[in-house]
Input
Amino acid sequence: MPTTTGTAPSAVPSAVPLTGPLSAAALRRAATPLTVTVDDEARDRVERGRRLFTSLRHGEGGEDRAIYGATTGFGALVGYAGRADAADQCDNTLAHLGAGQGPDLPPEIVRAALLLRTWSLAQGRSGVSAEVVERLAAMFATTFTPAVPRYGSVGASGDLVPLAYATQALRGRGHAYLDGRRTPAAEALAAAGLSPLALDGRDALALVNGTSVTTAALALALDSVRAAHRALGDLTCLLADLLGCDPGFLDADLLRAYGHAGAADVGTRMREALDGTTPSGSRPLQEPYSIRCSPHLLGAAEDALRYVDGVVAADLGGISDNPLFFPGPGPGPDGESNGAGTGKVVHGGNFFGQPAAFAADLLASVTAQLGNLAERQLDLLVDPARNGGLPPMLATVPGAQHGLQGVQLATTACVAEIRRTAAPAAMQSLPTNLHNQDVVPFGTQAALRAYDNAELLALLAGSLAVGLRQAVHVGARRPTAPRCAELLDALAETVPPVDPDRPLDADVRAAARLLVTPGRNRP
Output
């Protein structure tokens, strides 16, 4: 059965070049060993940026020019001199940031963040050495993954604390995972055939001074929510067919009159999925909102997801760092010549993750409402007063068996958890860093919350799928639309009937994997 909402899953790349745009599919692929190529064009960009950094730092007459992080302290201490030795300045950059707490981030987020960081550095605006980019690219051919604690970033001056842990692991300090096993980072590097990174202050700051963790978590969350959104369109069609609903709620003229592009597009795909259905004639004139208003809800979600798509695409194609170096002739930002006409260095705030924070908050709201829809549809399905006379809880022998009763309780708990954490983060600003960071976006918290809730949404879709499969076992009609029948058959191959009762946790996860695996073509 083709997907019913959103865009088709993007192709999973076998190799990722650092020239050209980075895709969300590449971030997903980075969870496992991947070839990342540094071509001549990328190498030339990086080397030009490095030459510019060197020339600007030493300035005319050999006098050092103030460049943030290369010659200065950090954050609120920018007005003080940094360490004179370049390698020592690397330690000056990283040591104080080893203050993270909490469990380690999922490896797929860490590796996706490092792929983003590598791509950003390879654009040549950060002044790093080509060796740093090449060594980062080499890491992706292995399973090496830095151990990075979850808590510590406010998403304002980049994801400083988590990226510092990642950078230190690449230097052989702290801990890392190799083949899924957590070990001292130096041991993991050696076992992977990698050498510790040698960095100066500019390299170290460039590795931590971007919102790569935030963007990675948001992109992966979006991928998962989009997959769940498509699955819920499929499952809504299957529910309507099993119950014998009239598909008039999907009428094209009706949804065009609604005036929202997402609803019209979702309605088109749902009509295609229900093509060939035969109404039972026994349903009420108007279905409950969880069916009748599903194209409006799913359509509004589609419109919102398109906004998040745009933010993620911009972040994947943007350079997140400070300062940035712009090789080429021309005056500096103050109108004066910078580096004898070789280019300019600009200090600014391209590490400020406000766009991702707003997008992650919107994604959390979409996730919560999609979760509400799945939970309400399952509630309708297990209720004999509304499910067309099927037994309560879809139990084969009510009382002696309890069918989906436990699953429904778990879906209620999952929805409550999504709602509890869906409060906006992007406006929760707290001043920090001696009021240098006097306004912060908290995009990291918003994105990691979106990632967590996307996993719960997948389980809610899996729960609804188990219920739909069980409904046919206890007396619901077989779907009359061919595509809905195809989906039911795929579910039946994955989830056996609940007869007698058994634990259903693994069945819910199996159904979720079938329907909500990002990038996977569903039945």
Remarks:
- Residues 1-9, 330-341 have pLDDT under 50 and may be disordered.
